[in-house]
# Entry
Amino acid sequence: MIAPDNKEMVNITLNGIEVEVPNGINAVEAAALHGKEVPHYCYHPKLSVAGNCRMCLVEMGTPMRDRTSGEPILDEDGIQKIGWVPKPVIGCATNITPGMHLRTESDLVNECREGIMEFLLVNHPLDCPICDQAGECRLQEFATDYGRGYSRYVERKNVKPKRTRLGPRVTLDDERCILCSRCIRFSQEVAKDDVLGFVDRGSFSTLTCFPGKELANNYSLNTVDICPVGALTSTDFRFKMRVWFLKESKSVCTESSAGCNTLVSSREGAIQRITPRRNDQVNDTWMTDSGRELYKLVKADSRIRRPSFRGSDLPLDDAISQAFQTLKNKKIGVVASCHSSLEEQFLIKRLVEETGAKVYIRGHFGEDDGILLSADRTPNLRGALVAGLTSHYPSDNLNDLNDSISDGHIEALLVIGEDLKESGVNEDNLKKVSLVFLGTHQNSTSDCAEVVLPGLTVFEKSGSLINRSFFLQSFEQSIPCPAGLMTDFKILARLINLFSEDSIAPSELDEIWEALSSCENSVLKGITFLKIKKGAIQLNGSKWEHLSFVEKEALHYLPTGVITS
Amino acid sequence: MSVSTPKERRIILKHADDPNYSNRIGCYLREGGYGNLKKAFSMQPEEVGEEVLKSGVRGRGGAGFPAGMKWKFLDRKSGKPIYLICNADESEPGTFKDRQIMYKDPHQLIEGMMITAFAIGAKQAFIYIRAEFHEGARILERAISEAKKAGFCGNKILDSEYSCDLVVHRGAGAYICGEETGLIESLEGKRPNPRIKPPYFPAVLGLYQCPTIVNNVETLCNVRHIIEMGGEEFSKIGKPNNTGTRIWCVSGQVMKPGYYEFECGSLTLGQLIFDICGGLRPGRSLKAVIPGGSSAKVLRADERFSGTLKDGTEFDWGLEDIPLDFDGPMAAGSMSGSGGIIVMDDTVDIVEAMANVNAFYAHESCGQCTPCREGSLWMRKISQRMCSGGAREEDADLLLSVAKQIEGRTICAFGEAAAWPTQSFVTKFKDDFIRKATDSPKERDPKSLQLI
# Structure
């Protein structure tokens, strides 16, 4: 990757105007900083430079100096002459040097772009009406800007395979491929799974998997995202939806503590796909394939859609009252969750303080892939630490809760989403306690709970999460929640209000954040929800440095908590 | 004219047609072979480089870049190993000089390479030979093992502390492997996609991202003779800035096609065609000449070339007056390239000739960058359609426009190689192209030569 060595600012002349840009960045980025788009296909800011599409050709010149003496060569007016490179150069591989001159709008540059556009389209099938990429296709966009408007091509077009299965989730249309090699470089450099390559020569070059290999890694769908045309398509999303109908909302992936920034695309209340959103400090422009599937949980059969008491449905208000009745005047335990948002965790903490309940929390762990699927498979374990629900690192079970029930210290339990049986609480003990379950999906605990309160998935509510690098990030509601339900922290607030007579728990995000940020000695001091919405906030995690977090070194993450650049 | 016709001066091909000379080491040693290697080893490596710089020898692969200068660009500070590669991927249509050297006098190349390796301090040397030279690869491998046995190559050369292994690497049949960065990629075991420059200049980031020198077979052989004569003396052969001899490979419709080695600038194109090569067949007249391999711009027989040379002298040449060196064909708007001179007489259908050239470039484009990949195939399709009865009057301009959209916008020089023939054929023989559309038979004569 051609990366700048430092962030020193230098002056260059862009289309005749002197501007300031960081030294060493490439011409495409430098022009973009000043509102000049240099069209490109193969260049991707997070991949190595290939320079093969030739769309980003620009004119470049440097101040002339005498070869032997090094003295500047001046013109009649005493101004240093500019030595323009006779041929256009590719912007993606041209790194800024002080005093460089660039032309991104000249006749020659436009002529180059028009030429490249024509070439890219001569063997392109032009099947936009049935192409998934239509509407977000770079070919369409730049053809509008630099296309000839009519075709001079009267020969037969090349014919290539239209539907090649590259792997379980990716389908390739070779005719649309412009051979930019982004997918190949992604597989080599980011996914570290080198399975893609070109075969054949010239215009007959064809993208394919190496013999006996398939594009099956957990990052394969990123190749679909970075494909500038409709060649690589998601088998799941293919032919499902026109992208211009999609409503996009900013969210955060809850698969693991990596906290990938995402865009959730939905239409009429139904999520159609999840794609990564660029964040150079967290996930660059990538996310896992498994994280993209999480939206399917919204409509899963096991989803809890209605509140119930002893197996029969009832309105949510009544269910909350029943929950209070079930819990009150007993020795209460609360099983909190690392899947809850920070706001929910804050209210659980409040509830615990109000009722004197004992808190139990468990972690969920798996293999760390060293990229964006971290060993901590919960999105907000650090939130639980910040909210003060626990001061020690959660283990992967609730054995201590089992002991407490056996010893008779717990008579009633409020469980947030967890499956107790799976967490080491034996069935006899489960029968000993009165259970209130607040969660999104059925499990063995919800099945035997006295009161079941339906929770909302991350797509149906707003809130914030703290990722493995202690970045506080917000997610926003993408789709409406099922009728008659309300967001988890409102349920919790009502429950708190029932327990306490003298105070009212905050039940709006702004109010919760007012309380969260007014706390002295808190790492959240001074933060508002609006600020988080504007961009991720780095929290000071030094207070928890002594805990042995399970995450391994990965993209933008070092186990010591230091963020890699 | 024939009075002043110069004689061949064979330096590189001295023993090429000697019936008493074989490609075995015995013959080479008998003729004083490897003596120059010993001479070079008695010098400092820098001194060898200086001699080559002084000789002014220019690369024989096509671009004509001074070899001594190329060596100077080597990045010696990085501490990475330095590699030497001999580009023996001779694939330019019309060129067959390197083949003669390797088949008939391989030890000359090995000696030249070992001197070069010593001069640049190479750790390892390669000969990248094109796939089609099966026999050549075998000859070279045998020659290398002979040289190794005699201590001229490999471990502790001439009992000195310097070692440099030499291996033959066979290509897999692609013209683009002659492009030096494509060659390097291929040698690394990848698709021979040429690299972008900057940043991947071979002298800095070449083979395995280490400093690398890539030289043509003929260039490396010249190194041996430079050491023999001394740079100063060598520079007296030929003309200033066009030193040494050149091997011209004449093909096409002449009576005696073949390879001819002359001092640079010692004869004209006319002398070569009409005196040395025995002229055209009876009753034929000259139509066009491609002076430097198929990628060079074609020259029309009745063209006049005028202008001012680099040294300030004015010139006004007909085709036959063009001096055969580096700068002569360049001044005439073409290039001497790899020295492959293709002669066409008046029986040649110029559109079909161009169609053949276009078919070659469309077939050989690596497909990496857009203009060359799409443009070369488009040009092939247009010119083949023109030859199959579907020519339109606007095709000539379309071809020119497509060629213009390729030229200067590609990763490597292949773009120009594909664009220049079309540009020159169409502009210089526009009438032929228009006539194809207006009065040619609509179907191609099935008895005529098949187009590729």
Notes: Chain B has a mean pLDDT of 94.
